[in-house]
Amino acid sequence: MTDRLTITTAAMASLSAAAATTATTRLLPSVTASASARLSYRSSLSLSSARSSPLLSHRFLPQKSSLRRFSSGGAGYSTVSSPKCAASSPEQLKSAREDIKELLKTTFCHPILVRLGWHDAGTYNKNIEEWPQRGGANGSLRFEIELKHGANAGLVNALKLLQPIKDKYSTVTYADLFQLASATAIEEAGGPKIPMKYGRVDVTGPEQCPEEGRLPDAGPPSPAAHLREVFYRMGLNDKEIVALSGAHTLGRSRPDRSGWGKPETKYTKDGPGAPGGQSWTVQWLKFDNSYFKDIKEKRDEDLLVLPTDAALFEDPSFKEYAEKYAEDKDAFFKDYAEAHAKLSNLGAKFDPPEGFSLDDSLPQGQPEKFVAAKYSTGKKELSESMKQKIRAEYEGFGGSPDKPLQSNYFLNIMIVIAVLAYVTSLVMN
């Protein structure tokens, strides 16, 4: 099946394990960790590879050595407190999105970018009203104290990948950048267009990070109950839990880093990026509904099925949606796009309060589309210059505000002209 995910020898040479930072990318049980190989990014950025799954959680040990390299005063990604940053610039966000697309083409890091956005947003607690204590999509995951949470192992590599883009676009907040990267990764992997909005405000210091333990685990004693406990706390329902689980169609897991999966399968032995690990699907860099199909069939021992994955077809409520998504990709894409957008907004504080979309305005230089209704409805006030012009023409025919024109004024003129024309024709004849 490797012909379904081919990359050239040259491309492989340009990658290292970090690029394939493609361990699963969902906020459910988190199966990620940093890879040992290095990726040369922009000729100077050296990364560890990571496998990550935004759905799994405390199966990882903190990557202390990597975190120290990103601590205050070190080179690369900084986790020190930063000044308050308000709304992101729409134009810079659009440009950052294009840079993220190029990054995805060369590093195949779709899964870990999805996981980064999910784990920043997934700490949200609907029972806490105050910001940022409630958690959610606020950029807090850039600080070392939160990076060291077990569920976030390896995400330091995602930060390394995005930091050059953040440096380039200084008015983009981390909170927006994390969610932009996550949604773009889904779309570039063949997934649905996510109806995103932006304008998220960043937290300003590590003291504003949430406590550890808010993210889900991969193998709890009661998987279905555990998923509900975590996701209900975020304000999500059963349909959204199952739809978001479908993001496991991306990525792979490595047993030496997460404790789950095989060291290598026929689908991962050749990469892309650093070979190895076990994927949930055959084409683990393609977003579709094969995750549900493969779990339902359970015919391939080389594909990973975690306890929380199996629960989707064992729990009656979850099964209703899982069966539907296995049969209907369009239904899955629709529900996934809505659930992803909802997740990305959890706990966020927007500036402006209603946020903004990157797709509201037309591309620069493109003419505005003609809409007849825009010009045929609604009463508009005349300008003063137009009023003066009409008054002058009105008075030129003998009218005034105090002396309206006679109703037959124009009719008389037309009759006179007609009579003159008739008389002239008679004379000529």
From TrEMBL:
Domain Plant heme peroxidase family profile: 170-366
Statement: the UniProt record of this protein carries the keyword Metal-binding: yes
PROSITE patterns referenced in this protein's UniProt entry, alphabetically: PEROXIDASE_1, PEROXIDASE_4
Keywords: Iron, Membrane, Metal-binding, Oxidoreductase, Transmembrane, Transmembrane helix
Transmembrane segments: 409-428
Listed cofactors: heme b
Reaction(s) catalysed by this chain's protein: 2 a phenolic donor + H2O2 = 2 a phenolic radical donor + 2 H2O
A Pfam family it matches: peroxidase
Biased composition (Basic and acidic residues): 253-269
Highest taxon, organism lineage: Eukaryota
Stretches for region Disordered: 248-279
Coiled coil start-end: none
Family as reported in the entry's similarity comment: Belongs to the peroxidase family. Ascorbate peroxidase subfamily.
PANTHER family linked to this entry: L-ASCORBATE PEROXIDASE S, CHLOROPLASTIC_MITOCHONDRIAL, THYLAKOID LUMENAL 29 KDA PROTEIN, CHLOROPLASTIC-RELATED
Official protein name in the record: Plant heme peroxidase family profile domain-containing protein
Organism per entry: Rehmannia glutinosa
